[in-house]
Amino acid sequence: MEVDAPRSQDLAKIMADRWAQYDELAQKNREELDKYWSQQIGESTTVVTTQSTEVGAAEMTLTELRRTVQSLEIDLDSMRNTKISLENSLRKVEASYALQMEQLSGILLHLESELAQTWAEGQGQAQECEALLNIKVKLETEIATYLLLLEDGEDFSLGDALDSSKSMQAIQKTTTHRIVDGKVVSETNDTKVLRH
Fold it and tell me: Among 13, 29, 69, 169, whose Cα sits 20 to 30 Å from the Cα of 88?
């Protein structure tokens, strides 16, 4: 009878070798997986770190932009308030100017009215003076005629006295002033020879 003992030892050795190979392969696979996942984790960590940095920078930029916007809004509100204040000041100045112009226009109209009245009174007084001067000339002529009658003792008729009075002359002088803004800007002298 034959014993197969050596064959069973070979099988055990083969199985042991196989397990050793599997263990070695499993260890190798674990190391490769560890290395792979370590690499992936490292790359992911790098990406996450980079993205975190970029996100942080973006958040800082966003914060700065928000501050800039707030500052610009404050400046805009200040400018609006300044604009409103200037518009109010302008309206007050315009109202004051309009009131002053109205007052000055009233004063000017009053002065023009007074000037026209004074001019009319002056013209009336000039006409009265001219009339009085004419009367004076006539009276002087008549007086001169009567004096001649008294001195010569001659007989003169009333017609002769009237004829002699017509030959008498008088000189009338008229001065005209031109007034602008209450000041005399020109003066005109007019001389007339009056016959009576």
Answer: 69
DSSP state of 178: E
Q: Which residues contact 182 (CB under 8 A, 6 or more apart)?
A: 111
Residue pair 193/171 in contact (Cβ under 8 Å)? The answer is yes
**CA–CA separation, 196 and 193 (whole Å):** 10
* Three-state DSSP class for residue 57: helix
DSSP result, 161-173 = HHHHHHT-EEEEE
pLDDT tens sequence for the chain (196 residues): 445 555 556 777 888 888 888 888 888 888 888 888 888 888 878 887 888 888 888 889 999 999 999 999 999 999 999 999 999 999 999 999 999 999 999 999 999 999 999 999 999 899 999 999 999 999 999 998 888 888 775 554 555 545 544 444 444 556 666 777 767 667 676 655 454 4
pTM over 0.70, yes/no: no
